[in-house]
Amino acid sequence: MLKQSQQLRLLQKLSPQQIQLMKLIQLPISELEQRIKEEIENNPALESMDDPDIDNNEQDNVINDFDEIDVFEDYNTNNQDNEIVENNYDDINEYFNDDDDDIPDYKLYVNNSSDDDTSNFQYYSNYSLIDSLIEQLDYKNLNEKERIIGEYIIGNIDDNGYLQRSVDAIVNDLLYIRAIQTDQKEVEKVLNIIQQFDPPGIAARNLQECLLLQLKAIPQKTPEVLLAIEILENYYEEFTKKHYEHIMKKANISEEQLKSAISEILKLNPKPANSQAQVGSQAISIIPDFIITINDGELELTLNNYNIPYLRTSKKYEQLYDSLSKQSNDDPKRKETLQFVKQKIDGAKWFINALEQRQNTLYMTMKAIMETQKDFFLTGDDTKLKPMILKDIADKIKMDISTVSRVANSKYVATPYGTFLLKHFFSDSLETQSGEEVSNKKIKAILKELIENEDKFNPLTDDELAKILEEKGYKIARRTIAKYREQLKLPVARLRKEL
Where are the domains of the chain? Predict the structure, then answer.
């Protein structure tokens, strides 16, 4: 039985324009320039003031030289697009991993950062390591079958230079994918050839093999190199866990001999493909969205409008619209042309207005962040950062948390102390014994300083670090210390110990 009824519901929906505005807010300045270019291409009623083709005196020109038919042809070709378009290691710790639950994965971690890395990202163009290895394969006297095996092995080497498939898996792959019947012995033979290629250590199946390949590739085998090979071959597990006393006892060597061997190991590269990838590398600087300067002890904030053109609506389209709107709309073709022109002009005005709203939103958000973290921006000291979450800024500027999140997501600010991602300034709070709330970034900064200045022959354990922090007024559990230490990419005390 059919039944009719009325219901009253309150719904909140975002219009396509609102969605587009949110997307514009989220774009960093490096992508905004491309988005503006796309909009100018899609909308003939939108013009850039920087366009050399635009005559500065065109407002004096009437539509004598402007053909309405051209606009109508634009309508025919663009009608389907009328909807809004949506568009050097300091420590041996970096090498090894431990099965202990408290130890994070440092197996392939390399500390290549520096103090300047806050202001720049290093982007390495991917020099084709595969092409280099294939070229070296061509110089080997291999038969057709061995060459196919070699190419398949090279194709399974990852960005760090490690072979990601086992020999058994490669044998099966070649059989089912290439219909080539081979065995482990034949694959191992070709793999051993590839492992002699440059860079040394390439195509290793694990870190131990990678380091051994590099040591064995050294032409002059000094006693230190030979001892390093012996340690990695026979005492690798003890070495990764820094059980140096066990190694000296089992290998019957002195502490000085062990130090010399470790020194040779520390010269090796745990990611052999990195050196190859850096050939022809280019450093690309981040373009900041905001610039903060200090003038007479006061902070000054400016938006970086680098390469962002000034926009306006086309005078020709506005003149044409005025002309068409005064004429009779009996002609269907003329009426459609009028609708098309109006739609493009409205779209251009909306886009210009949306960009203005974006700039205002970004400025208000960054100003609130700057005022909240004023002590940091004046000094550059991470310990001066205050606890701050998205809601704090949203309440301050009376906007939604999602809007603040979009601003902070991928934007950068240039300061006298480097360029930072806005997310850097957001952190949770911890309460001190005196009841004061401090940022967890301050705790991490103190923790990092303690570890940097510790006695490397007797490094501080997590329990000892917790006690020192408690003496400073920060009562923090050992588990939290371990979590912060891992976030700082610092290993446990045993792996920080030096001879």
Answer: 16-84+293-419, 121-277, 427-496
Q: For residue range 145-191, what is the model confidence (pLDDT) as tens digits?
A: 999 999 999 989 988 889 988 999 999 988 888 888 999 999 999 99
pLDDT digits (tens, 9 = 90+) for 271-288: 888 754 444 444 446 788
In whole angstroms, give the CA distance from residue 374 to residue 308: 28
List, for residues 22-51, the tens digit of each pLDDT value.
Answer: 888 888 887 888 888 888 888 888 888 765
Cα 200 to Cα 124: distance, rounded to the nearest angstrom: 20
pLDDT: which is higher, 473 or 369: 369
Report the distance separating Cα 119 and Cα 413, nearest Å: 9
- In the structure encoding, which two tokens stand for residue 424, read together? 């850097």
Determine the Cα–Cα distance for residues 335 and 315; give it in Å rounded to an integer.
Answer: 20
In this structure, what token pair is assigned to residue 11?
A: 């719904």
DSSP string, 310-371: PEEE-HHHHHHHHHHHTS---SHHHHHHHHHHHHHHHHHHHHHHHHHHHHHHHHHHHHHHHH
CB atoms within 10 A of CB 327: 11
Distances in Å between the Cα of 373 and the Cα atoms of 173, 383, 388, 409 are: 57, 11, 9, 18
Count of other CB atoms within 10 angstroms of residue 71: 21
User: Taking the complete model, does pTM exceed 0.90, yes or no?
Assistant: no
Question: What topology is assigned to 427-496 in CATH?
Answer: Arc Repressor Mutant, subunit A (1.10.10)
Q: How confident is the model at residue 111 (pLDDT cuts 50, 70, 90)?
A: very low
| Beta strand extents in 363-492 (DSSP E only) | 412-415, 418-421, 429-431, 437-439
Closest C-alpha to 412, from 293, 309, 291: 291
Cα 393 from Cα 405, distance rounded (Å): 10
Average pLDDT, the chain: 77
